[in-house]
From TrEMBL:
<comment type="similarity">
    <text>Belongs to the ABC transporter superfamily.</text>
</comment>
<protein>
    <recommendedName>
        <fullName>ABC transporter domain-containing protein</fullName>
    </recommendedName>
</protein>
<dbReference type="InterPro" id="IPR003593">
    <property type="entry name" value="AAA+_ATPase"/>
</dbReference>
<feature type="domain" description="ABC transporter">
    <location>
        <begin position="5"/>
        <end position="250"/>
    </location>
</feature>
<keyword id="KW-0997">Cell inner membrane</keyword>
<keyword id="KW-0547">Nucleotide-binding</keyword>
<dbReference type="GO" id="GO:0005524">
    <property type="term" value="F:ATP binding"/>
</dbReference>
<dbReference type="InterPro" id="IPR003439">
    <property type="entry name" value="ABC_transporter-like_ATP-bd"/>
</dbReference>
<dbReference type="GO" id="GO:0016887">
    <property type="term" value="F:ATP hydrolysis activity"/>
</dbReference>
<dbReference type="GO" id="GO:0005886">
    <property type="term" value="C:plasma membrane"/>
</dbReference>
<dbReference type="InterPro" id="IPR017871">
    <property type="entry name" value="ABC_transporter-like_CS"/>
</dbReference>
<keyword id="KW-0067">ATP-binding</keyword>
<keyword id="KW-1003">Cell membrane</keyword>
<keyword id="KW-1278">Translocase</keyword>
<dbReference type="Pfam" id="PF00005">
    <property type="entry name" value="ABC_tran"/>
</dbReference>
<keyword id="KW-0472">Membrane</keyword>
<dbReference type="InterPro" id="IPR050388">
    <property type="entry name" value="ABC_Ni/Peptide_Import"/>
</dbReference>
Length: 286
């Protein structure tokens, strides 16, 4: 089966203060329709840049000197403005880490949801129905509220409702539960994957939570220094990692130790990893 998302040897650089910072350095990732892929790695590894790149949502100081990105056959980096907007609206869905900042503070929730449903049924009953799908309490009341009047958990459910209302073909979720407390986090994660499964949506889930990724994602891709260094079934990558960085990452997972036990982390030979990047076969494919 051909990939619905195909990222090929992409380099992304940011120009800031006269300095060039390389965020992606030959990153590649292919995802088939219907897959649930967890993208893991430390902060600064390039996860968010890669996720935003799928919809060409990077800031204006980003450059793409090398590589290509295909979404369902469309070359994202070459699309015109009109075609790109259509692709984002009809095929892509994004759930950000900070849901409150994703909402317009000057507009009531009902109006924002109505705009997200433009071209689809968006009467009052339809709006209530979409909030009920995400198990929102008192949806009629919530539609009348402004973003500053709701909690973080409510905001995340609203963003999920807006995103999944159009049944996107690909969902990119960038640490979507990081700002939530532990009780809400599990419920929201279950909700997102349930809606995606019902809609047949492909999921790219960016996260630091290895346990959650292992539970909900069928496949895991590990990022380090702007590249995907290991990729394969979640059980194999997280349970029996092969790449030295993945070994270190798994060892540093606090979920793998008993309360009070000291976390023993594996050291990563950065020089060896840098040298391995000069080898075209550095990615461990499982």
């Amino acid at each position: 089966m051909s990939a619905i998302l195909d990222i090929q040897d992409v380099t992304v650089e940011y120009s800031t203060g006269g300095t060039i910072v390389r965020a992606l350095d030959g990153a590649s990732l292919a995802v088939r329709a219907g897959e649930t892929v967890g993208l893991v790695g430390e902060s600064g590894s390039g996860k968010s840049t890669l996720g935003s790149l799928v919809g060409r949502l990077l800031p204006g100081n980003a450059r793409y000197p090398e590589g290509r990105v295909f979404v369902d056959g469309h070359d994202v980096l070459q699309l015109g403005v009109k075609e790109l907007r259509t692709l984002r609206r009809e095929q892509l869905g994004f759930i950000p880490q900070d849901p409150i900042s994703a909402l317009d503070p000057t507009m009531r929730i009902g109006r924002q949801l109505e705009l997200a449903l433009r071209g689809l049924p968006n009467d009052r009953a339809a709006l209530v129905g979409h909030l009920e799908r995400v198990r929102m309490r008192e949806p009629e009341r919530v539609l009348r509220l402004f973003p500053h009047e709701i909690s973080g958990g409510m905001a995340q459910r609203i963003v999920i409702a807006m995103t999944m209302a159009r049944s996107p073909r690909i969902l990119i979720a960038d640490e979507p539960t990081a700002a939530l407390d532990s009780n809400v986090r599990s419920e929201v994660t279950k909700l997102v994957f349930g809606l995606a499964r019902d809609a047949g949506t492909t999921v790219l889930w960016l996260s630091h939570d290895l346990r959650s990724v292992g539970r909900w994602c069928g496949r895991v891709a590990v990022m380090y220094a702007g590249r995907v260094v290991e990729d394969g079934p979640a059980e194999q990558v997280l349970g029996s990692p092969t790449h030295p960085y993945t070994v270190a990452l798994a060892a540093a997972d606090p979920a793998g130790v008993q309360p009070g036990e000291r976390i023993e982390t594996s050291s990563v030979d950065v020089a060896a990893l840098a040298a391995s990047f000069r080898d075209e076969e550095e990615v461990v494919a499982r």
